[in-house]
Specification:
elongated; 5-stranded parallel β-sheet; 22 helices; 3-stranded antiparallel β-sheet; Arc Repressor Mutant, subunit A; 3 domains; about 500 residues; Helicase, Ruva Protein, domain 3
Length: about 500
């Protein structure tokens, strides 16, 4: 609702024709207005348009308190923080009230008296919608006093009040969010006895503090997040509380590389003051690493693999390009396939390994995930490297396509590539392999020379991952050689 902020008293509010609504009604009305206008309701939330967001909007239209249930890195908190966009920009409150009390309907005994004495001269303030959202991370040390409140004996003594007087209460964060949205992240981590304290707020909106039957009709939307892993590892949501949360909305990871890329491009820090162009091939490979991790038997899938893996990996890759350009004192701000191995630190810090993964080792697991991503992408673009006949009309194999490249190594030649190598040397080394450039041009449309050499290196890595070319990695260098000779040498 759009209102003029000139009103300073309750009487002026009435003259302006202002009509207050409950928080949930306010959000419902504003959401319907946005839907009818075809406007974006949750900007920056990608991949949920036909799954999570319709359920979320239904919960808001139904005036439900709700919980977002999903694994780490599924934008749960990001969604909750955008709920403020559905609130009115400003609302009036009674001046001085820490409970953001409605001038038309005070809820505390103090401001009921103040409002009764002042009448239409009751002074008001205006608060912005951003001030009407608070959140709390559930941790074992959270207490009922933190969330709801407690008696403050020092205040009682200082102001000479009886302990039965409502004025001696130190209000917690939930009452202070009255007429707003309060979020609890990782709800199962909240101790059961603390969860019990939320029951009446959700159902009856009354509060008890140390046995005082205080009837405070809070106007609030309570929203929660939870990770299914927490149900078994650290805690649970007690059944009565779960029953009172009206809607449960399950989140998920991006279903396509396209959605995943958009999320990474949106969230990653890529503006470094220098134009660094990252081609689609590299972006897809970074996302494919995350997809491979989410399917790997070596990764604990109950913990999930956050979208932060791709974001962190993208940032590390850009930093590796910056570092190379600075070390070589040139303007080679273009990625290479070997730059992908600079993201290992992003991988091992973002995955929980299963027992088999622990045996494998985090660095080896990370390198294998990169290799699996390269192999899948390579096999999706270039012809098969194995001699297989899937259909009578299909050619038997593609050995002639890669023959010149494989023959180069069979003759005893070796090729070194490094993420620290100057561009001119990198280019000259790749040019030594007959047929490599022609294969890249034939099967991959490139925009310029740099992308062409990137694809040439990609073919080498793809052949290695398909066991057609050997590769050793001494001192952060990559040396390609003949597969058979490498086996005999080792």
């Amino acid at each position: 609702m759009k209102v003029m902020k000139q009103a300073k008293t309750l009487g002026e509010l009435k003259e302006d024709g202002y009509r207050p609504f409950s928080t949930k009604e306010e959000m419902r009305r504003n959401l319907l207005h946005l839907i009818k206008g075809g406007q974006k309701r949750f900007p920056g939330i990608i991949g949920y348009d036909r799954t999570v967001l319709p359920q979320l909007e239904n919960a808001i239209l139904s005036k439900h308190d709700f919980i977002l249930l999903g694994l780490r890195g599924q934008a749960k908190t990001k969604i909750l923080r955008q709920l403020t966009g559905l609130l009115d920009e400003y609302i009036p409150i009674i001046r001085g009230s820490i409970l953001n009390e409605n001038p038309f309907e005070p809820i505390s005994s103090k401001y009921k008296r103040v409002a009764g004495d002042a009448g239409d001269e009751l002074e008001i303030d205006w608060i912005h919608r951003d001030e009407r959202y608070h959140e709390k991370l559930a941790t074992p040390d959270v207490s009922v006093a933190d969330l709801i409140g407690d008696i403050d004996p020092i205040k009682a003594v200082r102001e000479k009040l009886d302990l039965s007087d409502e004025e001696v209460i130190h209000w917690g964060i939930i009452p202070r969010t009255n007429r707003g949205i309060f979020a609890i992240n990782e709800l199962p981590d909240l101790q059961p006895r603390i969860q019990v304290a939320l029951l009446n707020i959700l159902e009856e909106s009354d509060i008890q503090i140390r046995g005082f039957p205080i009837q405070i009709p809070l106007d609030i939307m309570l929203v929660f997040t939870a990770n299914p892993e927490d149900y078994t590892n650290r805690g649970n949501i007690i059944t009565p509380l779960k029953d009172r949360i009206s809607s449960q909305i399950n989140t998920h990871y991006p279903g396509s590389l396209n959605h995943a890329r958009k999320i990474t491009e949106q969230e990653a820090w890529s503006q470094r003051g220098t134009k660094i162009e990252i081609p689609a091939l590299i972006k897809d490979l970074i996302e494919q690493v995350t997809f491979e991790a989410r399917e790997s038997e070596y990764v604990d899938q109950t913990s999930g693999v956050s979208a932060r893996l791709s974001i962190s990996a993208y940032e590390n890759l850009i930093s590796n390009i910056e570092r190379r350009a600075a070390a070589n004192k040139d303007n080679d701000f273009y990625p290479r396939i070997c730059d992908l191995y600079a993201i290992i630190g992003s991988i091992i810090g973002k995955v929980e390994m299963a027992y088999e993964g622990e045996l494998e080792g985090p660095t080896i697991l990370a390198m294998n995930l990169i290799g699996d991503a390269v192999k899948k992408k390579f096999n999706g673009i270039f012809p098969r490297v194995k001699k297989e006949k899937l259909h009578p009309d299909e050619q038997i194999g593609n050995e002639n396509i890669y023959g010149p490249v494989i023959d180069y190594f069979s003759s005893g030649e070796r090729l070194e590539i490094s993420d620290e190598m100057p561009y001119q040397q990198y280019k000259e080394n790749l040019d030594r392999i007959a047929g490599l450039k022609d294969t890249a041009r034939k099967f991959f449309k490139t925009k310029d020379e740099r992308e062409l050499y990137l694809v040439m290196e990609f073919i080498l890595e793809g052949l290695h991952r398909n066991n057609m070319v050997a590769k050793d990695s001494p001192d952060n260098r990559f040396v390609y050689s003949d597969m058979l000779q490498n086996i005999l040498r080792n």
